[in-house]
Design goal:
Keywords: Iron, Iron-sulfur, Metal-binding, Pyridoxal phosphate, Transferase
Order of helices and strands: EHHHEHEHEHEHEEEHHEEHEHHEH
Number of strands: 12
Strand order of the largest sheet: 2-8-7-6-5-3-4
Structural class: alpha/beta
Family: Belongs to the class-V pyridoxal-phosphate-dependent aminotransferase family. NifS/IscS subfamily.
Largest sheet: 7 strands, mixed
Shape: globular
Protein name: cysteine desulfurase
Radius of gyration: 21 Å
Cofactor: pyridoxal 5'-phosphate
InterPro entries: Aminotrans_V_dom, Aminotrans_V_PyrdxlP_BS, Cysteine_dSase, PyrdxlP-dep_Trfase, PyrdxlP-dep_Trfase_major, PyrdxlP-dep_Trfase_small
């Protein structure tokens, strides 16, 4: 096949043409600073507020609860670090603790590690062999000293969707703050922050057809979360720095399109994903699926192949014009096995052979068939 086959949509997505078109005027025509008082800058401010309203509507939030950031990692850092500061401020300097899971993105886990070095206690909820939090055990880990419960909405490596609604309810019942890293979920599955009992939510535009370098943090309106970045009065005095107007406009357009097309695209993507999984499991020996088969993102097919190394297989597939991942794009190149696979009990000789295929709306059945045939050759040659 002459063209590249892109099967790594969990790493990033192409900026949609409609998104690029929406952004363009704010690059070189309406480039005014939104903090200025004259009409030229006001055009940028109006565009930002429109994007804020669009995004708020997609998760059933209020516009004033959406705060723009540089992406998912900043949003996660803000939620965790400032939740701890908020707890200290309201508990006479006492350091609360964070309750999270061992399968989180490194933006969460590394932030927790830093907070732990500063004296904050970190606890981890148990997960089952599919990476899903065991709801029945969750409440026993919560206490009045919990500053924040943070559980991802869906896993970036294995696609497992967490029981966010149930966990949010349990946390809310105990008057604990609940945050979810929804970077992989937002724009791909419906999210309702009220029904799901979510107090804070992180998202990143480039995971759903928007530009890189922009995201948002939803903060429920009655939570007085401290500012993360100090400086100007942008974002209602919550996040200093001149706003990335083209990026925010693009994210708003991408959010609108993702939610408008979600049902139709998910149906097509799931069909191709299921076809890919069925053929791989039936035509390649010594392979296992990782992640939950029922509660799973519709675009994710993640496997472990015995007797190979996933990174080498990904490189060989690349020579055939196929882009896949041997794990999280944020940790590829690390000599260590995936922390997610370790947490769900995958043995090292299997974990070394991890490959992740994440599909998008533009993928075709012809591309999937070509990928399967090339994968069979690569696995056979490596063994």
């Amino acid at each position: 096949m002459s063209k590249m086959i892109y099967l790594d949509h969990a790493a990033t997505t192409k900026t949609l043409p409609e998104v690029a078109e929406a952004m363009e005027p704010y690059q070189d025509i309406f480039y005014g600073n939104p903090s200025t008082i004259y009409e030229f800058g006001e055009k940028s401010k109006v565009a930002i507020e429109h994007a804020r309203s669009v995004i708020a509507k997609t998760i059933h939030a209020k516009p004033e609860e959406i705060f723009f950031t540089s992406g998912g990692s900043e949003s996660d850092n803000w939620a965790l670090k400032e939740a701890v500061h908020l707890y200290e401020r309201t508990h006479q300097g006492e350091k609360g603790y964070i309750l999270t899971t061992p399968v989180e993105h490194h933006a969460i886990l590394h932030t927790c590690r830093e907070l732990e070095e500063m004296g904050c206690k970190i606890s981890y909820l148990p997960v089952d062999e599919s990476g899903r939090v065991i709801v029945g055990e969750a409440e026993t880990y919560m206490s009045e000293h919990t500053a924040l419960v943070s559980v991802m909405y869906a896993n970036n490596e294995i696609g497992t969707i967490e029981p966010v609604k149930e966990l949010g309810y349990i946390a809310g019942k105990r008057h604990l703050l609940f945050h979810t890293d929804a970077v992989q979920a937002y724009g791909h599955i419906p999210i309702h922050v009220q029904h799901d009992h979510i107090d804070m939510l992180s998202a990143s535009a480039h995971k759903f057809g928007g530009p890189k370098g922009v995201g948002f943090l939803y903060i429920r309106s009655d939570i007085d979360l401290p500012s993360f970045i100090q400086g100007g009065a942008q974002e209602s005095n919550h996040r200093a720095g001149t706003e990335n107007v083209p990026g925010i406009v693009g994210m708003g357009k991408a959010a609108e399109l993702a939610h408008m097309r979600m049902q139709m695209e998910n149906r097509k993507i799931k069909y191709l994903r299921d076809y890919l999984m069925h053929r791989i499991l039936n035509e390649i020996p010594d392979v296992i699926v990782t992640g939950n088969r029922k509660f799973r993102l519709s675009n994710n097919a993640s496997f472990c192949f015995k007797g190979i190394t996933g990174e080498a297989a990904a490189i060989l597939l690349d020579t055939q014009g196929i882009c896949v991942s041997s794990g999280s794009a944020c940790s590829t190149g690390s000599a260590e096995s995936s922390h997610v696979l370790t947490a769900i009990g995958v043995e090292e000789d299997w974990a070394d052979g991890a490959l992740r295929f994440t599909l998008g709306a533009e993928n075709t059945k012809e591309e999937i068939e070509y990928t399967i045939e090339r994968l069979k050759m690569v696995i056979s040659d490596m063994r």
